[in-house]
Amino acid sequence: MGRGKVELKRIENKISRQVTFSKRRSGLLKKANEISVLCDAQVALIVFSTKGKLTDYSSTHSSSMERILERYERYCCAERQLVATDSESQQEVSWAIEHPKLVAKLEVLQRNMRHYVGEDVDTLNTRELQLLEQQLDAAQKRIRSKKNQLMHESISQLQKNEKAMLEQNNKLVKMMKETNKKNKGAAKPYSRLSAFCTTKSISSSLNIREKVLQRSEQANLQAEVQPKTNSNVPPWMFTQIGE
Fold first, then answer.
1. Domain count, the chain
2. Residues in a beta bridge with 44
3. Banded pLDDT at 27 (limits 50, 70, 90)
């Protein structure tokens, strides 16, 4: 009967594992010698046991172990350089393809910027001019909306400051009244001074808020009444000049 197939796994028995290692190592060295002699091949074999014992073999008839290892290092280094060269060449090809695309995009962006400021519009046809006008109108609306938002925020902040000042003045008036109760002789000058400060601060804050609102309304009215023109200067620039 033939020998059954041996399952390849780690031998748990230490003695059996050592015996198997010795037998198979001898067979491996024999096979290496045979392929070296029969085929005139350069063979180098290195084996480390579990205890760290070294067993090596080299085809001494043609070269030594050091020469074979040097040849192996040169081969590996040349292969790595070849792979690196291939990757660099592929990257150069990709850059060569992407460069014209990026240059074309840059030219389009620069041309659009010149059109937005009213330059080089003589070469545009009617449809392109209408599209440019729509883009400028949309940009003007966004800018006006942002400006109104900032103005409303500033007005609300002024209202908060006004409220805080009123509260502070009320506290001061209350404190002064309490002081006047103790010092009746100095009550009238202090009360007049507090009333004057309160009236002055409220009137100044109201005047500031009314001026801000009037400027905002005038700017919006001028922007709406301003007629559209076919000149090279966009309509929204007249609003900025008017302000």
1. 2
2. 58
3. very high
